[in-house]
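ugh ok so i messed up the first submission bc i forgot one of the chains. this is the corrected input, ALL of the components this time, i swear. 226 residues overall. if the numbers dont match what u have on ur side tell me asap before i send this to the collaborators (the ones from the other lab, u know who)
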Amino acid sequence: MNIHIISVVPELLESPFAHSIMKRAADKGLLQVTVHHLRKWAINEYGTIDDYAFGGGAGMVMMCEPLVKAIEELSAAAPFDEIIFFTPDGKRFDQPTANELSLKENMLFICGHYKGIDQRVRDHFITREISIGDYVLSGGELAAAVVVDAVGRLIPGVLNDETSALFDSFQDNLLAPPVYTRPEVFRDWKVPDVLLSGDHKRIEEWRYEQALKRTQEKRPDLLEGE
Ligand code: ADE
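and heres the new structure output, hopefully the right one now
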């Protein structure tokens, strides 16, 4: 999978893909993330990429020209399956969306800043608008990093044990059950007996019950409409 990201603060995206599972995905050639500085397509030698909003009001708006030039130049190399804009008024990101995006080959992510991007870019180029939650970030970079991580780990071969993504929280609308590791007793807190029983059928049943209980307690909304 190839993901291109257009940003005005590319430094924000240097670390998230350079470690752990995202690094492994890159090393294995399964995920390539390329970050482009929007200033490369600035309208003048001063690096201008934004301007005042028509109609007034505080805050700058990212201009059409740099964004459209960037989109067209990058699309010419390889057409994008999706051009995604990160914005608090986008559709709330969730696991089904991550699953869907994990099937794409080539995507372009656009990170907004300031007051946002000229609406005409949204109207004519953007295929999907994503929000990572009902709060306002300073820019789309952290949202893009969240989506790359959630999608990247679903690419077959990225996780060592592929089944582990299948049992993630949310994959079946249930939160994940509690987990324990050694020692069996810490202070006087003991690991549930069933997990030490070696009886895999009972363990699976216990995990399902715990997942259901946890979901009922913490996120009953996930169980609605089932
Ligand atoms: N840009 C600013 N806030 C955002 C959010 N909540 N989700 C996605 N992109 C954003």
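quick check: The longest helix spans residues 200-218. that seems consistent at least. The CA atoms of residues 90 and 130 lie 4 Å apart.
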